[in-house]
Amino acid sequence: MSAPIHQTPASLAARSDNQPHRGPRLPKSTGHKALPEPRLRWAIVETFDSSGEYRLIFDGPYPRHFTKPNRLTIGCVPNVGRLVPSLIIQVVRSRRSYSEQTPLSDGRPLQIVAHPVFAPSGDVYAVALWAGTADEEVPSCPIVGVVEWTQTGVGYSTPAARELLGNSADSTGLWTIPGLLSKVDRLDDRAGFLSLFDLIAPQDEWIGFATVTRADHTRRHIYIAARAFGRHPYRTVRSIGYDITEILPPPTPSSDAATVRNLPIPEGHAMAVADLRSGIVHQWLTNADDPQAGWSHHRPEIHPADTRTITDTLIDLLARACDPVAPTASTRARIRFDANADWIELHGQWRLIYCGDRPQALIDITTELPVPPVAVSECAECRRTSSSGADAEPSSIAPS
């Protein structure tokens, strides 16, 4: 069964951007040997794997699905592919920019420029390459951001990644998956992205397109490539976001996402959508003036005595995902966002709203006691959210 069990606004939250497809159609390479304009001659090679198995993810104006770097053309520039592997190795090992020259068929020197793209750890997780004649000025490199995720959905981002979302003021660099998705107004194949964090049969790589509307109302189109390494609970997901707005204008935002984010919520309630196979809450809806609106960018700690309750609920709903009548469950669990804070008791009413490859559950959440006005008292973002209100989304409900 691949359709939502109930076609309600809540089911749209689970279904929105949840169907895998190949993203926007970009023009196919024509094979012409004339050099494209300089800004279209950037290529991105991911260098996630320390063993040296690097992969090409964007080549000039064309997306690539983890292909070998020696097949790189940078918009039909000849002689580039054979020079690229050694140049990439130099950049990764030295963490410095490099350039090389080689003659074109007409005798003109071709220059190849390679810049490192750093992960939050300082390792090189990508190399940006450009090729052109020696007398050409190298154009500015498009923004390439990196986020490294834990199995539980906590991400560590670079300043460039935050700039992609128009969130340069965020000085912590700490993200959650739902916090990220709350800033994205369209994501192709959300289900594929969540499958990287699947606790049962995880996928190891994913490619997708996202669009973002910034605070200044400008819209950006972002190409994302991610690969996973290791096994639970030490599995990590390394991802690159590449701004392709100049190559391909962004499509319109998802109307489903806009509809869900503007649903009326009963006072004192929060509505969450959970991906059952990963335990990730990826949609969180509250009234802007409710304290729960600030639960967007920290992963909650679940009380040790309550983790089994959450695990059993996930397993039970998965086992009954295709029942003729949508299964339900009720839970009581305590969470906190700060090790020095009191526990907050949550009452959750779960209902399966979508089955198929990635079953989803809607959770209606209320609290036993008044909620603290900020999740983490030392967090500037919490204080900003508390004072202004926001559409927020907490992170993972799966015990680590």
UniProtKB/TrEMBL annotation:
Pfam families: Rv3651-like_N. Residues 42-139 form the Rv3651-like N-terminal domain. Residues 1-33 are annotated as: Disordered. This is Rv3651-like N-terminal domain-containing protein. The lineage of its organism: Bacteria, Bacillati, Actinomycetota, Actinomycetes, Mycobacteriales.
